[in-house]
Amino acid sequence: MAALANSKNITLEQFLRSGRLWSIRLGSSEDNILAEFGEPQFRAPVSRKLPYPRIIRYGPIEFTLETPQRLVLVQLYFYDCEIPTTSSNVGNKGNVILYNGFFPGMCLDVFEKKMNELNISVSIDTSAVKFSDTQV
Given strand 87-89, what is the order of strands in its sheet? Predict the structure, then answer.
């Protein structure tokens, strides 16, 4: 975990309260994202015909840009993969998001409970959540 000592850390709670990942926020440019995180693990347009909107992904963090100058969506994925339960490197710049009490694969009810403990308002539309064999 030596990388943690040399990196800029942010907790999930800090992100949820501020809407920022380090200097990145809605409205940031693609250049800002690349400067903060380095080369992404995945970068591609949503459509084969148009260069934008474009998705840029670093592990469990995904950015959607409407134009090269306008970030419109930040998504954090909690899924079972090679992400440690305490932190995850997300890019070659050494930035780390600390899940700090959250973990990949967290169930919606546990996530909602954690949000309530942090006094963060959350509304989960369970009609939109689909599971492999059931719909809630």
Answer: 9-11, 96-98, 87-89
